[in-house]
Design goal:
- The chain folds into 2 domains: 2-227, Alpha-Beta Plaits; 252-470, paralog of FGE (formylglycine-generating enzyme) (Alpha-Beta Complex), CATH 3.90.1580.10.
- The longest helix has 20 residues, at 35-54.
- It has helices at 2-15, 35-54, 83-94, 104-110, 143-151, 290-298, 319-333, 342-350; strands at residues 18-24, 27-32, 66-68, 74-76, 79-81, 100-103, 117-124, 133-139, 153-154, 165-170, 174-178, 220-221, 226-227, 252-255, 258-262, 274-278, 281-284, 403-409, 431-435, 451-455, 463-465, 468-470.
- It is an alpha+beta fold.
- It has 8 helices and 22 strands.
C-alpha cells in the first residue's frame, strides 16, 4: 500500500493538480481544482491498479471503491468535513470493489464531457443522510452499455469528474471523492491556502484507467436502467448548402521493409527482445494535427471538434476516436488507412538504428518535446508538429509530443507476440498500446522501445496518433 501510494497515487494526484488532504488508513481524502482532471486522475489510478493486479494471484488483488459527490464541505487547515464529505463516503460504501458511484449532482456536471456511459441506480438512502441520494454507476465507455444490458453486469468502472471535489481512497475497497463548496463554509485566511469561493476544487485520476487487457474484477449485478447522455442539438437556420468538407492532405512517408530487433531490457514489458520482419508500408510524417482532425469533424464523421493551433497534434482522443478518423479517411481517399501496428511504429521510430534513441544511447537535450528535455518547451501543450529534427526515416515526433495509439491489444510483455510486423490482436482488447511518450513525460518515455497502454474508450489530454497504410 505504501509503495502504491508513493509510486502511483501521490504522483498522479499531483500531476492532475490535486492535493491529498489526509490519509485514512488504507484510504485518503484528496481535493482537486477541476472535475475533468479529477476523473482523469481517478481513471489513471484505477487502470494502473488493474495492470498491477494482473501479475498477482486473484486473492492478492487490491481493488478500490470510489464515491464522488458535489456539495459543500468545511475546509480547515488539515482536514475537511461536512455533508459533502459524508455523502461521497456513503457512495463509496455502497459501491462494489472496482465500481465508481457518483451522485446526481455530479452526473449533471459531467454527463456530456467524457466517453462514458452511466447506469442510473435510482435514489438510495444512505446512513446519516436525511434525504435519499440519486446514484449513478459510471461505465467506461458507451460500448459498455451493450455489455451491461446483455449481461446485466460490467467489469470495471471509471472515475468521473466533479465541479469541486475531494477524493478518499481506500485500498482493497475504497476511494471517495468529495467536493469543495461553490461557497466555502468556513473562511480560512489566505495563508491557509485551502478555502475559496467560486468554482469547485476536485479532480480524480483518469484517464486510469485508466483500465485494460489484464484480468478484471468479478462483475457486479446491474441494479437499474442504463442511460447514455444525449447531446442537445443547437437550433439554427440553414441559409445555403455548405460545401463538402476538405480532405486533409496528410504527408506520408514510404518505409522499406526490413528486419530489426524489437524491444529492450530496460523494462519487463519490453521483453523478450526478438527479431521482427516488417513489410513495406507508409506512415504519416507527423502525428495527425488539429486541422486534419477537424476536417473529419466537419464531415460529421468524428465525434467532436478539436481545439488548439491547426498545426499542433490533435490530443484528447481515445482509441475508439481514432477508428472514426481512419475509417473516414480511408473512405474519402480510397486508401486503406489504419493505425500502425506496434512493430511498425517501433521500426519507424528507430529509423534503422539499434540504439535507445534514434540519435544514440544517451538522451540529447532539445531533441524531443518532453518534460525536462530542454527548449523549446511549453508545459501547457505540445509544440507544433515538426518542431524537432526528423529521424533517419524522415519522420518527426517519433518520441515525445503526444502519446500515439497503435493497433495492438495490450499484453504485459512480448511473450508469444507475432514476428511478422502484424498487430497483436488476441486476448482482451479493452486496452490498446500507446507509444512515444508525451510532452508531459520525461525522457525515459521517448525511447524507441518504451510502451504503455490505455482503455480504448477513454479520452486523455496527452493522447494522439498517426496513420499508416499497407503497400
Amino acid at each position: 500500500m505504501k509503495r502504491q501510494r508513493r509510486e502511483l497515487i501521490e504522483p498522479t494526484i499531483a500531476e492532475h493538480h490535486g492535493r491529498i488532504v489526509k490519509h485514512t488508513g488504507d484510504g485518503f481524502l484528496a481535493m482537486f481544482d477541476s472535475p475533468v482532471e479529477a476523473v482523469r486522475c481517478a481513471i489513471v489510478i484505477q487502470q494502473s491498479m488493474v495492470g498491477r493486479n494482473a501479475s498477482l494471484p486473484r486473492n492478492q488483488w487490491i481493488q478500490y471503491r470510489v464515491g464522488v459527490h458535489l456539495g459543500d464541505v468545511i475546509v480547515e487547515t488539515d482536514d475537511i468535513y461536512g455533508d459533502g464529505v459524508n455523502i461521497a463516503a456513503r457512495l463509496e460504501g455502497i459501491a462494489d470493489p472496482g465500481d465508481l458511484f457518483i451522485s446526481g449532482g455530479v452526473y449533471e456536471q459531467i454527463k456530456n464531457k467524457l466517453v462514458c456511459a452511466y447506469q442510473s441506480l435510482g435514489d438510495r438512502q444512505v446512513k446519516n443522510i436525511t434525504d435519499p441520494v440519486n446514484v449513478y454507476r459510471v461505465l467506461p465507455d458507451p460500448a459498455a452499455l451493450k455489455q451491461a444490458r446483455r449481461r446485466m453486469h460490467w467489469s470495471l468502472a471509471l472515475f468521473v469528474p466533479l465541479c469541486a471535489a475531494l477524493i478518499a481512497f481506500t485500498a482493497a475497497a475504497t476511494w471517495y471523492l468529495f467536493t469543495e463548496p461553490k461557497q466555502v463554509v468556513v473562511d480560512i485566511p489566505p495563508s491557509a491556502g485551502t478555502a475559496r469561493t467560486g468554482a469547485a476544487t476536485v479532480q480524480t485520476p483518469a484517464p486510469a484507467a485508466p483500465q485494460t487487457a489484464a484480468p478484471v474484477p468479478a462483475p457486479a449485478p446491474a441494479r437499474g436502467p442504463i442511460e447514455t447522455p444525449k447531446a442537445t442539438p443547437t437550433p439554427g437556420t440553414a441559409t445555403a448548402p455548405l460545401p463538402p468538407p476538405a480532405v486533409p492532405d496528410i504527408t506520408m512517408v514510404t518505409l522499406p521493409g526490413g528486419t530489426f530487433v524489437m524491444g529492450s531490457n530496460d523494462d519487463v514489458s519490453e521483453k523478450p527482445q526478438r527479431r521482427v520482419t516488417v513489410k513495406r508500408f507508409a506512415i504519416s510524417k507527423f502525428p495527425v494535427t488539429n486541422r486534419e482532425w477537424n476536417a473529419c469533424a466537419a464531415a460529421k464523421s468524428c465525434s467532436y471538434a478539436a481545439t488548439g493551433e491547426d498545426d499542433a497534434p490533435v490530443t484528447n482522443v481515445s482509441w475508439n476516436d481514432t477508428q472514426e478518423f481512419v475509417t473516414w479517411l480511408a473512405r474519402v481517399t480510397q486508401k486503406p488507412f489504419r493505425l500502425p501496428s506496434e512493430a511498425e511504429w517501433e521500426y519507424a521510430a528507430r529509423g534503422g538504428t539499434a540504439t535507445k534513441f534514434w540519435w544514440g544511447d544517451q538522451f540529447q537535450s532539445g531533441a524531443a518535446n518532453c518534460k525536462g528535455c530542454g527548449d523549446p518547451y511549453d508545459a501547457a501543450q505540445p509544440l507544433k508538429v515538426g518542431s524537432f529534427e526528423p529521424n533517419p526515416f524522415g519522420l518527426h515526433d517519433m518520441g515525445g509530443g503526444v502519446n500515439q495509439w497503435v493497433s495492438d491489444c495490450w499484453h504485459r510483455n512480448y511473450q508469444g507476440a507475432p514476428i511478422d510486423g502484424s498487430p497483436w490482436l488476441e486476448g482482451d482488447c479493452s486496452s490498446r498500446v500507446i507509444r512515444s511518450g508525451s510532452w508531459k513525460n520525461d525522457s525515459g518515455y521517448v525511447r524507441a522501445a518504451s510502451r504503455d497502454h490505455y482503455d480504448i474508450g477513454v479520452r486523455y489530454p496527452t493522447h494522439g496518433f498517426r496513420v499508416a497504410y499497407s503497400l
